[in-house]
Amino acid sequence: MVNVTDKTRELIFDIWDDYYYIVAAGDQAPTKNEVINFGEKYGVIFPEDYISHAVGDLGGFFIEVKEELWPYAEELSVAPFWEFLRGVYSYAYSEEAPEWMNIYIAAEQFKELGHKVIPVLKVWADANVYCYNEDGQLVKYFNEENTFEHVNKTWFELVEHELNELAERKNRKLNK
């Protein structure tokens, strides 16, 4: 395997301003062997770029627009769908991560649905999830259809895309 440099910090700094809040794995990041072994448990081989992210201090990140700038929607709120998408996260390996972003719990949920994938990235409030499949390919799971679609991006291209989309939504919301 070739070592790949983690670009997560660089990608986050490309959009970063004082409007965001972020938490990440820090010193609780898994080792390379832990990530590889976890993938093997589910029959998934992770690519090197994803592994470099997962073992980095910004692996398992959650970034969102600060609540005072973009308040959480109230229950039963009606708004355009994009207004609920105020954050992005990569699933975390830390046992201290909230259940909704814990990769171990999420992988088991997909296994129970009969899918041989591991979820790795999600847009906050979107039911669809980016995963790696048994071929080591990025796929997007569409919850309503219970289907997968190939994503023609590397891990870091996906992270960059979703962070840029978040920045565009933030600017749209704040300029509204």
Automatic annotation (TrEMBL):
InterPro entries: Knr4/Smi1-like_sf
Highest taxon in the source lineage: Bacteria
This protein's name: SMI1/KNR4 family protein
Organism: Aeromonas popoffii
Classification of source organism: Bacteria, Pseudomonadati, Pseudomonadota, Gammaproteobacteria, Aeromonadales
